[in-house]
Amino acid sequence: MDPLTILALAQTAYGAIKSGIAAGKEIQGMMQDVSSLMGSVGEITRMVADPPKSLFQSKESAEKRAMDAYSAKQQINQWMQEAQNLFVSQYGYGEWIRLQEEITRIKKADRLAAEKAAREKAEFLRGLAVWGSVFILVFVVIIVVFFVAYILTVKG
Known about the structure:
156 residues; 4 helices
C-alpha cells in the first residue's frame, strides 16, 4: 500500500476512536479501531524503514516517496498520541495498557493460527504429492505389466 492509502485508513480509525470515546462507547467496541490505527503505524514504519524493491522504477523520485512516507508517519503518530490521550482521559491509563496487551495477544494468536494453517497446508500438499507419485508409479507399473503380457501373448 502507498502512504496515502495507509494515511486514509489511519484517519478513519482515528475518527472512529474519537467519536467512540465521545459517545461513551465500550472499550471492547473500540479495540478494532485502536488495532487498526496501531497497524497503520506499524505498516508505515515498515514502509519508511524498508522501501519496496520493484523491478520497474517508479515515476516518483525516491525523495518524494520518502517525504510522503515520512509525512504520513508523522500524521499517524500524532493521531495515535491523540487517540491515546483521549482514551486515557476517558478510561484511565491502566485500561489503555490492558487494551494494548489484549490487542497484542489477539494479534499473536492470529499469527500463530495463520502459521499453523500454513504448516498444515504444506503437510497436506506434501502428502498429496507423495500419494500422487505413488499412484502414478503404480499406474505406470500396471501399464508396463499389461504391455509386456500383451507382447508375450501376441508372440506366443
